[in-house]
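Technical annex, item 7. During the second reporting period the consortium partners agreed on a shared format for inverse folding records so that results from different sites could be compared directly. Each record opens with the tokenized structure and is followed by the designed sequence. A conforming record, contributed by the partner at site C, is shown below for reference.
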């Protein structure tokens, strides 16, 4: 027993894994300019969609996270990875089984053996045999090859676990973007219909003025062309709304049309979050699921090097059999004379196969180098994502603010024109033209606001959505 314990305590060959130390800046380049930072930790980053202040948006994301079919697939992959880890754990333990058999034979007397046996007066052509055995085997992991395989399986399991979080983040962000797009299309479609109505009134007045010789025919045709242009936008927006509603149903794991009725009412767009905790580039390493996945793949590839190196060394195994066998009758099966036992110390050594082992080790090292480069690239791209997301968000906010100022100015123009019309100073045509300018700018504001909200969603996604690495030890 002492010998076995000494063998099992042997060191695992191959390099022990150490997470790479990557150089990251202390803060993001756009941290100060974006105007969306907090000095305290954001406790709600994991449920970032609640910051948009839209209960229906929160409701749909909850549905998506519960029944989205991409997430169902990711969960199934986790079950496969967990099974692989279980197999790697089981490889370190003894295995055993019970076997038994009963046979009934009828001996021919025409064969040489049968003729010899038949010459005996007590020969019975019928024969019975019974056997039962308990067997066990154990591969002694002296040089740690099986333990390295276990390390690799555990790393892949945690990578798959992070894959679920990555899918959850993508599904939540996509659901939010689709919902915002639906609300934006509905608002813009409502504006487009009002524009058609306004231009129809302008055309009616223009025709009236033309009939009285107050405007040239050219102006009538220009007004007709403008009306047709606005009319043409309506069916395109309606089609876009239909496809976007269908996209929401699919991402929620339901048939197209399932949520159309509850989305029929036109409601304001979600609010733009006032604060977003950017954190530091170093914090992304433990927050973004894709970086966790890349790092865990690197750890698995490192463990595979050790598993390949272990093939240089001999493998020892213990096996044994304890059972009973008889060819007389069942009653004697468990008698002392029927007992049988076997003990084996096995040795397997690829002594003349070092060329193949060298190739396998080189392949494992190449895989590790690839995974290290992939991890470093993933960190760079993650930092780039955050920088781009917040830069875009800042510029979109500036655009929205400028367009909103234009809406305020045109609203005052419209009010002034209407007041003058009531006093008989301005014509109704001037009021309608002011309405048309205001509606056009309102459409621009709706689009700008929707793009700003979408940029905020992209910022939360770039930050990793607040997911933290799972500390579970399997």
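Designed sequence (site C submission):
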């Amino acid at each position: 027993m002492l010998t076995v314990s000494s063998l099992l305590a042997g060191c695992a060959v191959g390099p022990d894994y150490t997470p790479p130390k990557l150089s990251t800046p202390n803060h993001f380049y756009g941290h100060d300019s974006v105007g969306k930072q907090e000095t305290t930790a954001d406790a709600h980053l994991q449920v970032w969609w609640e910051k948009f202040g839209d209960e229906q948006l929160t409701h749909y994301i909850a549905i998506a996270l519960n029944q989205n079919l991409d997430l169902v697939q990711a969960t199934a992959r986790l079950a496969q990875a967990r099974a692989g880890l279980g197999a790697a754990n089981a490889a370190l333990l003894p295995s055993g089984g019970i076997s038994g058999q009963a046979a009934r034979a009828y001996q021919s007397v025409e064969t040489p053996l049968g003729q010899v046996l038949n010459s005996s007066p007590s020969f019975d052509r019928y024969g019975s045999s019974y056997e039962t055995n308990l067997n066990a085997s154990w591969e002694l992991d002296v040089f740690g090859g099986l333990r390295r395989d276990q390390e690799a399986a555990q790393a892949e399991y945690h990578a798959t676990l992070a894959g679920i979080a990555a899918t959850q983040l993508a599904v939540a962000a996509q659901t939010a973007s689709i919902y915002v797009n639906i609300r934006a299309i509905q608002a813009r479609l409502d504006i487009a219909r009002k524009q058609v109505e306004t231009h129809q009134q302008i055309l009616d007045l223009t025709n009236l003025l033309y009939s009285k010789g107050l405007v040239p025919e050219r102006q009538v045709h220009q007004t007709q062309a403008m009306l047709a242009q606005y009319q043409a936008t309506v069916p395109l927006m309606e089609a876009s709304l239909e496809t976007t509603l269908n996209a929401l149903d699919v991402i929620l794991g339901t048939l197209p049309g399932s949520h159309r009725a509850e989305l029929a009412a036109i409601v304001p767009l979600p609010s733009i979050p006032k604060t977003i905790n950017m954190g530091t580039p170093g914090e992304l390493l433990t927050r973004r699921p894709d970086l966790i996945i890349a790092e865990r793949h690197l750890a698995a590839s490192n463990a595979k090097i050790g598993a390949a190196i272990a093939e240089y060394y001999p493998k020892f195994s213990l096996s044994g059999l304890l059972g009973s066998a008889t060819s007389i009758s069942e009653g004697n099966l468990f008698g002392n004379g029927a007992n049988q036992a076997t003990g084996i110390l096995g040795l397997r050594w690829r002594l003349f196969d070092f060329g193949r082992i060298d190739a396998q080790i080189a392949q494992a090292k190449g895989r590790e180098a690839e995974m290290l480069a992939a991890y470093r690239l993933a960190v760079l791209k993650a930092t780039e994502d955050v920088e781009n997301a917040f830069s875009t968000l800042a510029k979109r906010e500036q655009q929205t603010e400028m367009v909103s100022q234009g809406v305020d100015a045109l609203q005052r123009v419209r009010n002034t024109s209407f007041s003058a019309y009531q006093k008989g100073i301005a014509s109704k045509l001037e009021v309608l033209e002011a309405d048309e300018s205001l509606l056009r700018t309102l459409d621009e504001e709706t689009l700008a606001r929707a793009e700003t909200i979408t940029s905020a969603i992209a910022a939360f996604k770039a930050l990793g959505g607040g997911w933290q690495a799972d500390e579970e030890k399997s």
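The chain has eleven helices and four strands. Residues 1-9, 37-43, 468-474 have pLDDT under 50 and may be disordered. All partners now use this format for quarterly exchanges.
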